[in-house]
């Protein structure tokens, strides 16, 4: 027995020694504050072995043979750490990283961001959150599980033309900035994510402000804003190869590399991407290319950065949607069969950015930018009228031909340039935080159309323009905002913005009308509020904000000049509470958004038969949003959000074409207290994360959207049905010797194969009642079906 005990003791000591030899473990903290650092990089130089610190700042590298090693650790905003270690190593390492003395890039977006004391409703999305879902789909799809968001895709698979709505507000009412620089199209106010393929791979973080939010640059914030910051400096050199593939022949290939910090001052980063997909809808293919290059100088008090990025897209058009009567039998129907029915566009962006501090109290940010966009979409038009193109009938012998097959191209060639700036003052006692900012931007865009082929040749040449017009838009704004700590933990907030728009256009529109005109707008947008940090760690806030928005280009060009639509006005009240504790974070808020003169489609026609938007006097959105996450233990985390809302127009007039009348006319129908189109009364999402072992994460993602109407009549025959979907995601990190890290991701979308549509449109008209007297109403609904069960899988190598 004594011999057995001795043997066991010797074996146990040996086991402990072996275990000590094969494991390096420890924790990483901020040396100044003692706070744990989550996601810090730790690796043994020259071995290809490494890891990242977990939620508690701990790390572990297993199976390390005996010998001498150089252990390195790094984290953004901190100086790199290096230490020689000898294996076997019996002690647990305690690493404290020192904050860097180099000026950080945080202030680049500070002017347009909300902080924890800002009395508005917002959600921060980190690079880690984005990367978990980033397998080639556009950014709207990656934000689908954030509060009050509904995402959709024309092709049905999340690649190509995609969009999102927040609180029912479409992309033209959502302000988007990248590094504080406006991204919305100056004329349509929209953002075309298809022109920015794989942009998510160069994003460091996003802040989504719902409601009016704080003052920003560019288009009016009339429902929400997306404030995007691109990749920030990495201190260590790196390289990444990221490839993914999936259903509908979807492919994404991305290569990234960076120099790290050179000579403790300089850094260069670059990305090159290619995405292709056949799409869920027939022929809804996408061929997308992009690159991103950034170079920067980082001093103790100043940062200079140059960002150059570009996207080129060729997508087969799936704009028409699927008729309602085909949803059961041919959900992937595409009206277009011409082999080059494509949209072709390229956008190049140049940003020169400065951020710096002066003394202890002042910071400054300025940026110059230039965007060059050009491209066309090509369409086959069967038996089209020659009069649409200003052409006389073609006479051949005694035959007069007024119609023929035509292939046309509609072009857009534009320049967008300007500058933005901000100055920030922070008092010595920290009570005053004051900021002055603004910007001035010009858009110069040419719109023109060409006929490139005719079934029967007419008196036109291949490069003749059948319409040609130019628009120049100047957009200037200046704002002053400040936070004052009136008493301990009570912060008062004020934000005053003045915005001026001068818009002029000349030439002939695509409906052959002269649209020459000048429009000017001057807006004052005040915002006030307060926040209170309670002793239990929660922050209460309330605010009142005003926004004004000019009509979009087509509101001017399509409307009769005597009936130019009025600008829209929004008054927004936000009230809520947010808290972040060790295991539990939550946000709860109420909002009320009152619109005056909101522009909506009514069915009204202009003098050449195009539908126009009209002002409705009074409408509103009101709702409650809940957002939270709870970490049960080291393995399980539960999260989710839900929004309940009421979205109403007080009085609305619908115009319906009457083809049954002896002379064509439109019939007017009055409505009151009806739902605003595309505004579901309930939107919910839930995410369950499970980590059965250290480097494996399994997530279930659930989304629910209640029914929403295609127009403002609240007609049950013109709506999108409620839908829910469930996605399953697997993320696994490996650390083989030949790379620092290898990440494998599998995303199974719509695992229950739900058939649903998240976008569509409708129109109605009266026709004679066949075989009977009178007339009948015909309603045509078109939908954009989303894919059933499909998958995306990716593998990323980090060197």
Automatic annotation (TrEMBL):
GO terms for molecular function: siderophore uptake transmembrane transporter activity. GO terms for cellular component: cell outer membrane. The keyword Iron applies. It is a multi-pass membrane protein. Residues 325-751 form the TonB-dependent receptor-like beta-barrel domain. Keywords: Cell outer membrane, Ion transport, Iron, Iron transport, Membrane, Receptor, Signal, TonB box, Transmembrane, Transmembrane beta strand, Transport. It comes from the Bacteria. The keyword Transport applies. It is found in: Cell outer membrane. Its main location: membrane. Residues 116-223 form the TonB-dependent receptor plug domain. Pfam families: CarbopepD_reg_2, Plug, TonB_dep_Rec_b-barrel. PANTHER family: FERRICHROME IRON RECEPTOR-RELATED, FERRICHROME OUTER MEMBRANE TRANSPORTER_PHAGE RECEPTOR. Belongs to the TonB-dependent receptor family. This is TonB-dependent receptor. It comes from Rhodonellum psychrophilum GCM71 = DSM 17998.
